[in-house]
Task: inverse folding
């Protein structure tokens, strides 16, 4: 299993986490509350954690070739919710 993490500075982490989980809850297996989420997507699993200063995103994939696509899907959706601010995603 390959893992990747981004810690995204934002005061709205909980809001974005919940919006993303709710958005995908009708299509994919999700579990979430105001501080954490787990979303099982075809590309892999996303786990998110919100605190007052940041949104931490942990992605897990079986196939390393899918990781760039998974990054792009997550970033695209969160940026859509966060259209009022510019977020920085540094994946490690």
Result:
């Amino acid at each position: 299993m390959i893992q990747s993490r981004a810690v995204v500075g934002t005061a709205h982490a909980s809001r974005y986490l919940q919006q993303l989980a709710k958005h995908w809850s009708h299509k994919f297996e999700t579990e979430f509350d105001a501080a954490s989420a787990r979303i099982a997507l075809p590309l892999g699993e996303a786990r998110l954690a919100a605190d007052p200063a940041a949104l931490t995103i942990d992605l897990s994939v079986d196939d390393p070739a899918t990781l760039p696509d998974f990054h792009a899907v997550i970033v695209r959706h969160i940026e859509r919710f966060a259209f009022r601010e510019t977020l920085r995603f540094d994946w490690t």
User: Anything to note?
Assistant: The radius of gyration is 12 Å. The longest strand covers residues 2-9.
